[in-house]
Amino acid sequence: MSKSIFRYPKIIKLENGRRIKNLEIAYHTYGRLNDRRDNVVWVCHALTASSDVFEWWPGLFGEHDLFNPADHFIVCANILGSPYGSTNPLSINPTTGRPYYLAFPQFTVRDLAQMHRLLADHLGIDRIAVAIGGSLGGQQALEWAIADPDRIARLILIATNAAHSPWGIAFNESQRLAISADRTFYADMPTGGARGLKAARSIALLSYRGYPTYGATQLESTNEKQDDFKASSYQHYQGEKLVKRFNAYSYWFLTKAMDSHNVGRGRPGIPEALQRIKAETLVIGISTDLLFPVTEQQFLASHIPRATYAEISSFYGHDGFLIETKRISESISRFLKRDGEPEKTIKLQQVI
């Protein structure tokens, strides 16, 4: 395993016209590029993850997992705006000499895909055997496959969509309302908005799981309680856990980026954009996902030319893409072993 920083020497122009100087992208690599240079697996991470994919996606990525360093050269880049080593709102603004905070330039998922392309160019990677991502990571991988269709051979999209939904945007806006209600968010200090971020995480969790999950994991063992419920403690714990490892400014801008996701923007339309993808594609939906319902993955599979659809039955809602790694690995393994043209599918409800 190796962690590195790529420092881009030129000024980056974002989709909205804003510019970033001194761009830094933190990234991890695992394994080695083989002589044929055809073993690259590129991971696009989700909202609050880092470039250390072995840490947050075990069971799918690891020494003894489907994607392992013995067989693959695995690359995972920390996305723009994230606080795990890449340029983000707490980085120094070269114009002012102070951290950006809310002056950080707003960016889109399409900009995140551009950063992946810049890093791939820097690493001399012309061909990616597999590009994979779930949730926001899937949005990035999708944009990259549309913008650079000849570079990606196989594409794996999990619990993601072609355009972020009004439902998803409403959840993100509710989280930002919680952050902005914390007056310290506007104080320009690294811990600004921490209480708001804790509340935002509590809101997010409701979209990541669901009624059955909470009913099974947070149900009280007694009928006598009037306060201090398990579910309440769980929300506090998860909120505090995020505050210790993230910051409100990064969260603000990354949720804005997710809201921006629409592959049809500036193109003839969403179906037409999806038609540009040349990669053989596996789209995986999670049966109980409230945030990215399976209809969104079925839409992707029906419009991407060489796509296969699989559906995972999970108790864990959207978080199933991180938890159900055994089932996901089985589905991906079958996809990778298949030769030739995939069956054009929306084999709806291929439940594993």
From TrEMBL:
Keyword Ligase: no
Broad class of the protein's primary localization: cytoplasm
Record pathway: Amino-acid biosynthesis; L-methionine biosynthesis via de novo pathway; O-acetyl-L-homoserine from L-homoserine: step 1/1
Compartment list: Cytoplasm
One Pfam family named in its UniProt record: Abhydrolase_1
Binding site for substrate: 201, 319
Xref: InterPro entries: AB_hydrolase_1, AB_hydrolase_fold, HAT_MetX-like
Stretch forming the signal peptide: none
Record-annotated active site: 135, 289, 318
Top-rank EC class of the record's enzyme: transferase
Any GO CC annotation of this UniProt entry: cytoplasm
UniProtKB keywords: Acyltransferase, Amino-acid biosynthesis, Cytoplasm, Methionine biosynthesis, Transferase
Domain of life where this protein originates: Bacteria
GO biological process terms held by the UniProt record: homoserine metabolic process; methionine biosynthetic process
Similarity section: Belongs to the AB hydrolase superfamily. MetX family.
Chain's role: Transfers an acetyl group from acetyl-CoA to L-homoserine, forming acetyl-L-homoserine.
Protein name per its UniProtKB record: Homoserine O-acetyltransferase
Species in which this protein is naturally found: Parapedobacter composti
Gene: metXA
